[in-house]
Design brief:
mainly alpha, 2 domains, two-stranded antiparallel ribbon, 4 strands
Length: 176
């Protein structure tokens, strides 16, 4: 489904005359996948309201709630369409300590969203502080995340852990 399929005008036309359970056509069915906006809406509510959800403790137990306006799916859909939703983007809270609301949420790529989590480990190197995932996209980085972590655990400096190329196993065998 494209963004153009779900314009505000079409959403309102579909819901005219319905009050309690408006039809938006995004929830999916047994043979039709739910639209990503609906999935974001559903997952946001599940994280904050379902005690059976795996992320409940990370959200609801920390006091994170969904703003009252976003309890209405149509309001959320309209916000999404007017605030940068595109295929492949996910709902991101700018400040992880604040609630789900129009002021605190944006649509972001999974890479950007992965940089905004309390589980990230930040490293200062070359006068810059970045999370390990960010260092891996830096042109000075010559190894992957696991190598950086392992090297730092072995006592390497941050600069060395990031910029020293991996040892070539074949070359080491030849030297022995």
């Amino acid at each position: 489904m494209s963004v153009t399929t779900y314009t505000t005008k079409k959403i309102m036309k579909r819901t005219k005359g319905r009050s309690k359970h408006p039809k938006h056509g995004m929830a999916g069915s047994t043979n039709k996948k739910a639209h990503p906006i609906y999935t974001a809406f559903h997952n946001m509510h599940k994280r904050c309201n379902s005690k059976k959800g795996q992320d409940y403790r990370l959200y609801a137990e920390k006091g994170i709630v969904v703003c009252p306006a976003w309890h209405d799916i149509l309001t959320f859909i309209k916000w999404a369409l007017h605030n940068g939703w595109a295929q492949g983007l996910t709902l991101e809270r700018k400040n992880g300590d604040k609630n789900y609301s129009p002021k605190n949420c944006i649509w972001a790529t999974p890479l950007i969203q992965g940089r905004n989590t309390s589980r990230n480990v930040y490293i200062e190197a070359f006068g810059e502080k970045k999370c390990i995932a960010e260092w891996c996209t830096d042109e000075r980085c010559l190894v992957g995340e696991m190598s950086i972590v392992a090297r730092i655990k072995r006592g390497w400096t941050a600069e060395e852990a990031i910029s020293v190329p991996p040892a070539n196993v074949h070359n080491l065998k030849k030297a022995v």
